[in-house]
C-alpha cells in the first residue's frame, strides 16, 4: 500500500511536527505532496499549508527560537482537512485588507479562495487554523 492517499472512500490522517523555521515551510509542502501523491488538488493543498505554516512562524510563538508547528492532513471521500497547529500568540488569524504596496496580508484570502471553509480554534496558548479543500472524484489515485 502506498503511503499516499489510496482511494476515494478511505479516510487517512497524517500528522507531523516541524521546527518553527522558515525553511520548514518547504518541508510541510513536501509532506502534503507525499500525502496526496498525484491527486489534482496537490497545488492548492501545498499553497494552503504554505500560507498557514508561514503565518504560524511569522505571527505566533511557533517562530520563536525552539518553536514548532504541526500539520495535520485528514482526507475523506470528498474533503481534505489541512490544519496547522501553532504555539499561540496575541492575535487571532483573520482576513484583512492589504494595501497595494503592502508585502503581506493576502495569504488568508488565498486560503479562502481555494477552500470551501476555513477557521480558527484555540486561544493565545495555541491555535489550530484549519481549511477544508474539496477533493475531486476523478483525480488519479496512486
From TrEMBL:
<feature type="domain" description="Histidine kinase/HSP90-like ATPase">
    <location>
        <begin position="18"/>
        <end position="129"/>
    </location>
</feature>
<dbReference type="InterPro" id="IPR050267">
    <property type="entry name" value="Anti-sigma-factor_SerPK"/>
</dbReference>
<protein>
    <recommendedName>
        <fullName>Histidine kinase/HSP90-like ATPase domain-containing protein</fullName>
    </recommendedName>
</protein>
<keyword id="KW-0418">Kinase</keyword>
<keyword id="KW-0723">Serine/threonine-protein kinase</keyword>
<dbReference type="InterPro" id="IPR003594">
    <property type="entry name" value="HATPase_dom"/>
</dbReference>
<keyword id="KW-0808">Transferase</keyword>
<dbReference type="Pfam" id="PF13581">
    <property type="entry name" value="HATPase_c_2"/>
</dbReference>
<dbReference type="InterPro" id="IPR036890">
    <property type="entry name" value="HATPase_C_sf"/>
</dbReference>
Amino acid at each position: 500500500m502506498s503511503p499516499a492517499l489510496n482511494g476515494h472512500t478511505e479516510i487517512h490522517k497524517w500528522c507531523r511536527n516541524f521546527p518553527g523555521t522558515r525553511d520548514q515551510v518547504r518541508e510541510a509542502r513536501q509532506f502534503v505532496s507525499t500525502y496526496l501523491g498525484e491527486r489534482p488538488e496537490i497545488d492548492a493543498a501545498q499553497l494552503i499549508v504554505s500560507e498557514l505554516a508561514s503565518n504560524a512562524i511569522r505571527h505566533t510563538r511557533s517562530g520563536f527560537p525552539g518553536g514548532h508547528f504541526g500539520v495535520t492532513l485528514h482526507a475523506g471521500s470528498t474533503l481534505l482537512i489541512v490544519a496547522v497547529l501553532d504555539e499561540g500568540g496575541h492575535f487571532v488569524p483573520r482576513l484583512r485588507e492589504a494595501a497595494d504596496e503592502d508585502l503581506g496580508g493576502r495569504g488568508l484570502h488565498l486560503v479562502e479562495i481555494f477552500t470551501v471553509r476555513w477557521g480558527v480554534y484555540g486561544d493565545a496558548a495555541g491555535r489550530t487554523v484549519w481549511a477544508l479543500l474539496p477533493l475531486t472524484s476523478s483525480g488519479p489515485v496512486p
